[in-house]
Amino acid sequence: MLRISHLKKTFNAGTVNEKVAMNDINFTLNPGDFVTIIGSNGAGKSTLFNLISGYFLSDEGKILLDGQDITFMPEYKRAKYIGRLFQDPLKGTAPSMTIEENLALSYSRSKSRFISLGIKKKDKDLFRERLAQLDLGLEDRMKTKMGLLSGGQRQAVTLLMSTLVVPKVLLLDEHTAALDPATADKVLRITKEIVAEKNITTMMITHNIQSALDLGNRTMMMDSGKVILDIKGEGRSQLQVQDLLDLFKKESNKALDNDRILLS
Ligand SMILES: Nc1ncnc2c1ncn2[C@@H]1O[C@H](COP(=O)(O)OP(=O)(O)OP(=O)(O)O)[C@@H](O)[C@H]1O
Ligand SMILES: [Mg+2]
C-alpha cells in the first residue's frame, strides 16, 4: 500500500533558520487502514502530507504507493491517486463554479478524460445520488455556486470530489478544525461513512484527541519530525483521551502542546 522509508526533510538547511521537519520517518499502511495523527504544533504532520502528495520533495528516503516508487513523481501526477483536504474550506474548490461543475471537474480529472462542455446526464445522476448521501440538501442545489456554501458544506463537497474516484490514499489535514463543533461533527460523520463505504486507506491529522480515538483503526503520534507512537490493534480500543496524553508525555518528555487541541 503506502510504504514510507527513511523520509527526511530539512528546511533552510545550512542557515540559522535550519529546521529538521522530517527526521527519518518509517511506516507502512495496510489497505483500508484509517490512521489518525496527532502531535504538537510544528511536529511535522503537514510536512509529512506535503511529502506524500508531492508538494515538496524529500531530501532522503522513499515513498512507495502500491509498489510504485513515487518519491520523485510530480504533484499533479500523484493527485490522480491521492486525495487531500485542508483545514481551509476555501482550498480545493473553485468558488465561482457550481457544485455540479466542481464535481464534474474533479471527476474528469481523476479519470484523465477531457472535460466536455456539458455534464453528461449519467454523471449528473451520480453526483445527485452522492450529494443526497451527505444529507445536507445539496442534491437540490447543484447549480449553486460553491462560493455561496458554508464552510462545512464545502468540506463535505470537497470530500465527495476527492472520493468520486476512489483514491489510493486520502489525506485529511485537520479538515474540520475551522468548523463550528456541530458542523465539524457532521463532516466527521460523512468522512467516516465515505471512508467505510469505499474502504479508503486514509490518514487524518486531527487536533481532537477524542476523534483520534473514535475514528479509524490506528493512531500515530508525531513529535519533532518523528513518529513516536503507532498504536493499533487490541490495545487501542481500550485507550481513553488521558491515556493518549500520558503516552505522548512518556515518549516525548513533554506535554502535547497544540494551540487547537480539543480534549473532548
Ligand atoms: N515551507 C516551509 N519552509 C520552512 N519551514 C517550514 C515549511 N513548512 C514547514 N516548516 C517548518 O517545519 C516544521 C513542521 O511544520 P508542519 O507544518 O509540518 O507542522 P504541523 O505538525 O503540521 O504543525 P501544526 O499542528 O501547527 O499544523 C515547523 O517547524 C515549520 O515551521
Ligand atoms: Mg499542520
Annotated CATH topology of the domain at 2-94 and 165-252: Rossmann fold
CATH-derived architecture of the domain at 2-94 and 165-252:
3-Layer(aba) Sandwich
* Strand order within the widest beta sheet: 6-7-8-3-9-10
Outline: globular
Query: In percent, how helical is the residue content?
Result: 25-40%
Query: Alpha-carbon distance between the termini?
Result: 32 Å
Percentage of residues in strands: 15-25%
Number of helices: 9
The CATH homologous superfamily of the domain at 2-94 and 165-252 corresponds to P-loop containing nucleotide triphosphate hydrolases
The count of strands amounts to 10
Mean pLDDT, rounded to whole units?
93
Main β-sheet, in a few words? 6 strands, mixed
Structural class by SSE content: alpha/beta
Topology:
Blueprint lengths: L1 E10 L7 E11 L4 E6 L5 H9 L6 E6 L2 E2 L5 H4 L3 E4 L13 H12 L10 H14 L16 H13 L5 E5 L7 H18 L3 E4 L3 H6 L3 E6 L2 E7 L1 H5 L2 H12 L12
Magnesium ion (MG) binds next to helix 1.
Summary keywords:
264 residues; 6-stranded mixed sheet; binds magnesium ion; binds adenosine-5'-triphosphate; Rossmann fold; alpha/beta; 35% helix; 4-stranded antiparallel sheet
Describe the structure.
The chain has 264 residues and is an alpha/beta fold. It has a domain at 2-94 and 165-252: 3-Layer(aba) Sandwich (Rossmann fold). It has helices at 45-53, 75-78, 99-110, 121-134, 151-163, 181-198, 209-214, 234-238, 241-252, and strands spanning 2-11, 19-29, 34-39, 60-65, 68-69, 82-85, 169-173, 202-205, 218-223, 226-232. A 6-stranded mixed sheet has the order 6-7-8-3-9-10, sandwiched between helices. The radius of gyration is 19 Å and the shape is globular. The mean pLDDT is 93. The site of magnesium ion has 2 residues, from helix 1.
